Amino acid sequence: MLGIKDKKILYQLDLNSRQSINQIAKKVGLSKDIVNYRLKKLEQDNFIQGYQTIIDFQKLGYITVRTRMTLVDTSPQKEKEIIDFLIKEKQVFFILELEGTELTYGLMIKELSELNDFYEKFESRFKEFLSNKKFAIYSDLYHFSRSYIEKSKEKNTIIIKQNKEEGVDKFDLDILKILSKNARTTTMEIATILETPATTVAHRIKRLEEKKIILGYGLLFNFNKLSYSYFRVNLELRDISNIKKIINYCELNENIIYAMKTLGGSDLEIYFESTQETFLESMKQIRKQFPEIRSWDYNILKKYHKFNYFFG
Prior knowledge:
Alpha-Beta Plaits; 31% strand; globular
């Protein structure tokens, strides 16, 4: 059971998981030692599954292709083999296992030839077990604060949209790869890994933030610990003129953590972390507010197997 103090700490980490212990302590009104102790306990108790660096991969010249597919004729061992294969592929930046037999994952690519090469490799091993593949390209991604953790006026919405490519070098990319695995990796730790002065690393991180390549730092939260589920909703609209209004409305819902526009998928996808009762009531209100929603369906997430915003 989460106490009020734990919720305050978690919410601050969700707003900016790279904050120092001192910064968090001042904001939540606790001592540094207590925050440090509670944070370690939250990690040990698996409330926290990771610390994300939210990277605008489009500014690095990447497009993201999402694949949904059904696994057929698979044993648990074969499903694990397929998932393990995807985990090891560096271009795969997220893998979601949904209830039933659906698997969803995302690829970061710069050229279509990379997509072709990946699928030749993947399907040469597993083609007989894959069915009903559907592709989509992410265009706009809205990342909302988890207001359900703690009621707060302090909120943070991060938006990844179509942007022109920014110039980066190998050193920048090396920093991004490290931070994509763990946003709380310290400047000194990064400096040690890259064998360079900490002042240089700090300067580069600041520059990546100023260029809006690094958009923020978030939390991979274990919502199951609150007896919540993760619902992915696909919306089909009669017209798309009100998509921005729907997104703005979703931003006010404390249980909606993402909204996404895709090319090739549904008109809009929204993602909840909540109880089923809260989710269904929220969808009822959204449909009442926006009668242009002509149809909707949803899936329930079973497990994250990987979720980075870069090649972590």
